[in-house]
């Protein structure tokens, strides 16, 4: 595979017009593309867009970004304004335009909803390298397809893109229909937030406190924007582990709502004592939070194993069952950790296998997706499908969707040059 780095849009357009099957990437933080194993990627070219010129500006309440702007860049850019972004994935070195392509969510989705819901418009280069604009107007829907997507109404992302608005052509389609060049999205008025940790028993031993907190937190989404989870195994990877042999739930609470949250929520928790709740500096939490998935990637890389983790979200009434399912996995004798967006019943269980344990983990993951299917969960709630998750996709799809995707691909990418080994070319065997 050849790797190229277009420096500007003219060079990018030049490559598109060569009509060579390529995978166009930005910061390469996707957990569903095996960047450590380039031989697994079949496209002729990896077109790395991370050197593209960056443009960023605030117009009224909307941020407009072009090129290789990262979430971190956007945070820095807004630092001296009264606005802030409403989304960032835990890995803030990822690019915002790629975030559209993967339909990224992240910690703040608990309070602010998904990135998709914040998008006003975007632009992309089509197969003729022409720039096309997409608005957030509702489009004419295919009834079968929208009935299928309706099943996933309360989830961050269904197993396939939603295709309800014009911009959805680029959201969650992972660069298979064109290359996104610009995005316009909402910001929010800046407010002060306080970060609190709640210490809990290890989930492998006791889950009552976990369930009580997430259930009661649902009524306070206007006041709490983050409801995250780190288990005791994840905490061991921190440079400064702040607790031992305990799990943590982390809440970011609007400063102006603090008294209300304390009186109506935290002090009313039956399974938590006041001594188990403590405040921490918000920046410290952000730094800690990203250390954990990065450590998972480093361990897998060292063990020469492709990432083996879950990204499933379930309804609250199935969350208890999900934790029990993970408990069985914790007894397999393979290293693991569990962390993620507990307020949305969306956790990342990560196996950390040695390469000789990979086959066992693969077969466990096959069974897990059947469990998610039976429990009406969403299998790929935020990291997308990429190459790594494709083998789990088919069982979630009614048969008509294969043709639906293939037709879209034919219309928008007739030469099959945009990530042709992606999920839209999935074939029935
Ligand atoms: C430590 C860690 C934490 C993470 N936390 C989260 C999280 O909380 N939430 C979350 O959603 N994800 C998370 N991720 C996953 C990842 O960060 C996101 O998927 C992110 O959106 C990828 O951005 P990127 O710039 O790295 O994209 P890349 O990995 O470079 O590309 C990802 C996909 O997007 C496509 N793409 C990239 N740029 C474009 C473009 N301009 N036009 C069209 N298609 C394009 C690519 O073809 C590819 O399919 C995490 C990853 C890591 C490593």
In short:
With 429 residues, this protein is α+β, with helices and mostly antiparallel strands.
Structural features, described:
The protein has 429 residues and is an alpha+beta fold. The chain has two domains: 2-189 and 412-425, Uridine Diphospho-n-acetylenolpyruvylglucosamine Reductase, domain 3, CATH 3.30.465.10; 193-374, Vanillyl-alcohol Oxidase, Chain A, domain 3 (3-Layer(aba) Sandwich), CATH 3.40.462. The protein has twelve helices and 17 strands. It has helices spanning 9-17, 71-78, 96-101, 109-112, 143-150, 208-217, 232-235, 258-264, 282-302, 319-330, 358-374, 400-412; strands at 2-4, 22-25, 45-48, 55-59, 62-66, 83-84, 119-125, 131-135, 179-186, 188-189, 193-200, 224-230, 247-254, 277-280, 308-309, 336-341, 346-351. A seven-stranded antiparallel sheet has the order 14-11-13-12-16-17-15, with helices on both faces. Strand 16 (336-341) and strand 17 form a beta hairpin. It is globular and about 65 Å long. The model has no long low-confidence stretch (mean pLDDT 95). Flavin-adenine dinucleotide binds at residues 23-31, 33, 49, 89-91, 94-95, 97-99, 101-102, 104-106, 174-175, 179-180, 290, 293-294, 297, 382-384, 386, 419.
């Amino acid at each position: 595979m050849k790797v190229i780095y277009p420096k500007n849009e003219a060079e990018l357009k030049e490559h598109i017009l060569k009509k060579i099957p390529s995978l166009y990437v930005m910061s390469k933080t996707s957990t569903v593309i095996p960047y450590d194993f380039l031989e697994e990627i079949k496209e002729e070219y990896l077109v790395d867009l991370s050197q593209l010129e960056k443009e960023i500006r605030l117009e009224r309440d909307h941020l407009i970004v072009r090129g290789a702007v990262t979430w971190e860049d956007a945070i820095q850019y807004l630092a001296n304004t009264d606005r802030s972004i409403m989304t960032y994935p835990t890995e803030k070195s990822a690019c915002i335009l790629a975030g559209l392509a993967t339909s990224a969510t992240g910690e703040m989705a608990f309070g602010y909803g998904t990135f998709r819901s914040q998008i006003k418009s975007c632009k992309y280069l089509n197969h003729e390298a022409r720039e096309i604009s997409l608005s957030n107007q509702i489009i004419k829907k295919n009834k079968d397809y929208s009935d299928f997507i309706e099943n996933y109404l309360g989830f961050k992302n269904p197993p396939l893109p939603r295709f309800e608005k014009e911009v959805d052509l680029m959201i969650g389609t992972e660069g298979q229909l064109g290359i996104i060049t610009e995005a316009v999205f909402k910001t929010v008025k800046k407010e002060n937030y306080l970060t609190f940790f709640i210490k809990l028993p290890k989930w492998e031993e006791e889950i009552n406190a976990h369930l009580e907190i997430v259930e009661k937190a649902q009524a306070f989404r206007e006041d709490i924007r983050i409801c995250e989870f780190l288990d005791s195994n994840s905490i061991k990877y921190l440079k400064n582990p702040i607790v031992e042999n305990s799990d943590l739930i982390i809440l970011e609470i609007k400063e102006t709502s603090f008294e209300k949250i304390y009186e109506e929520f935290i002090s009313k928790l039956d399974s938590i004592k006041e001594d188990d709740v403590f405040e921490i500096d918000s920046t410290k939490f952000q730094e800690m939070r990203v250390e954990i998935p990065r450590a998972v990637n480093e361990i897998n890389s060292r063990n020469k194993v492709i990432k083996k983790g879950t990204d499933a979200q379930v309804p609250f009434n199935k969350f208890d069952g999900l934790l029990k399912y993970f408990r069985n996995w914790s007894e397999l004798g393979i290293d693991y950790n569990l962390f993620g967006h507990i307020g949305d019943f969306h956790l990342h269980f990560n196996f950390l296998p040695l390469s000789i344990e990979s086959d066992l983990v693969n077969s466990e993951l096959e069974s897990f997706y059947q469990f998610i299917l039976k429990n009406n969960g969403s299998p790929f709630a935020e990291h997308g499908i990429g190459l790594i998750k494709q083998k789990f996709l088919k069982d979630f799809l009614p048969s008509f969707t294969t043709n639906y995707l293939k037709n879209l691909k034919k219309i928008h990418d007739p030469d099959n040059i945009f990530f042709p080994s992606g999920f839209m070319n999935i074939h029935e065997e």
